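REQUEST ID: PR-0412
SUBMITTED BY: lab tech R.K.
PRIORITY: routine
TASK: structure prediction, single protein chain
INPUT:
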Amino acid sequence: MKPVRTLAEALGAGVLVLDGGLSNQLEAQGCDLSDALWSARLLADGPEQIEAAHAAYVRAGARVLITSSYQATFEGFARRGVDREEAARLLARSVELARTAAAVVREEVWVAGSVGPYGAMLADGSEYRGRYGLSVRELEAFHRPRIEVLAAAEPDVLALETVPDVEEAEALLRAADRCGVPVWLSYTVEGGRTRAGQDLAEAFAVAAGNDRVVAVGVNCCDPADAGPAVELAAAVTGKPAVVYPNSGERWDARARGWRGDIAFDPSLAGGWAASGARLIGGCCRVGPERITALAATLDAPWSGDPARHADRQD
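STATUS: complete
OUTPUT:
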């Protein structure tokens, strides 16, 4: 159902479980995501599939759904011959589909409008490098129109996610400053630094003191990097942390397949919560079954008492 509390109010009461990777669930449903628009293509060609994927996560225990707009941009749609008016309609549809899927349960479910980085539009993996050669002002100009459209569709929060460097974080926060919707800021990191190689404490600091930011943290990273990042995000900003790492597998671009072992362990979530995480879920390759295990591990909604999870922090 549409929540009666704001997301900030809910985070003050305990932990909320995020969904998992939308693309892997869509692939499990038989969808072809080989297009440069990735899952965003289905906003036009298969909206029922997106709604079904969202509903699978709600049934699994997710109480925050991230929309399918990560790779949905005016520029990306234009390359497919979609004009700006239709692109805006499709962006708004991403929020509507998540809101409709939330109705499969009686509990409150919040919708986060996904705002991916500039590199996602390029569809060349550069969101994992950052440093596009654009100024903060240029990046702000790129992000603002999409943020305005998504905000007008009335999500509960905007997820400024998979951000690879501090300059883009600054641009995103500027672009969202007057949108009327709260935001969370989530970096993609590796080895305790942003993907662009910047100090993570300095990266989190750009959100400190910004009242529009309701949570700060990391996503689309190795699970091993999640715990230290959660502690740092909470310590630097004094805000609730958000964390949703990948499965731990790595994409082999040459072989066009995933390699390595699954390292996403729901039992780690109790430790993340004790360190300040209040939004906890999964990203790439984390499906509904692991979200179910995550929700069970957290016994969400969490009481806020670290002692309840002391035996789960190994």
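NOTES: The mean pLDDT is 91.
REVIEWED BY: pending
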